[in-house]
Amino acid sequence: MHAKRVISIVGCHAEGEVGDVIVGGVLPPPGATMFERMTAMQRDQDHLRRLLLCEPRGSVARHVNLITPPARDDCDIGMITMEPTEFVPMSGSNLICTVTVALETGIVAMREPETVVRVDTAAGPVRARATCRNGKCESVAFANVPSLVDRLDAPLAIEGLGTVSVDVAYGGMWFAIVDAARLGFRIEPAEGRDLAAVGERIRLAARVQLSVVHPGNPQIAGVSIVQFDLPFQGAGNVTRNTCIVAPGRADRSPCGTGTCARMAVLHARGLMKVGDTMIHESIIGSRFKGTIVGETTVAGRPAILPTIEGRAWITGLSSVFVDPADPWPEGYVLADTWGVTGTTAQ
To answer: Which of 80, 138, 167, 187 is the most exposed place for a label (fewest CB within 10 A)?
Structure first.
């Protein structure tokens, strides 16, 4: 073995969505806040994201998280999340993976039957409660950042589809939310490629036609993900969705931030109230439980306080090597596997 760099990773997935966690070989980036650290890493170490997510070491179906010391005194760990085309302020499935790995590897001391882990994210602090038994993290419930609606029923012109109505909402990232049934989808595994292709067309159109900026942080801007939903089945019942992660592939989990964004929309429409829950089911049948626990405002705009509960499982340990003679130290992408747009940036 001849390596100029070795990175140690714990493999993990939350309800089917891969959220691996770096545990060695990467130093934390500088910054007074986690958002500054994420921005610094995106600016100065984006090669690391491509190295770990692009072929031949990674894949479009993978996310990777870096655990760092927190920037806030009231948090236990910091988390920076790398996705195929961007660094994201917050991700529910990745947070569940990160907390599970931190507890089961001893980075954070596990206490049974419950361990509280305060995670410093680029979107803000998130308080997680892990149910633990016999050394295993059985589930993670977390109080997410405030989630809000930017606009409802926004018309979006899509070539080949005409005008599509979307709701735009924030749950840690910006989502364009689409009624899947109106486009003829049932959100089944066999529809995955078609959903991804249509979802990417909607995302690209939304980023051009629908300007959106977080009222508390103007640097969190632009639609990142398209969420296809089947009709809401009522509080406490199972409703299916799938989120299309750029550059065009279906989230295997129900998407934690997407569930928060959808609950914000349902609350704005009067279909959910404080205390109500929804069971969000993914394209592969996995589930997250979402609850609206309160109402608040963000820079004067109405928002909800959501919680998400889900499970994660560690899948293995690995070390990633970079041979100095390797002609692809930052990997490569091909359109046959890398989504539908073949890009590594939003």
So the answer is: 138
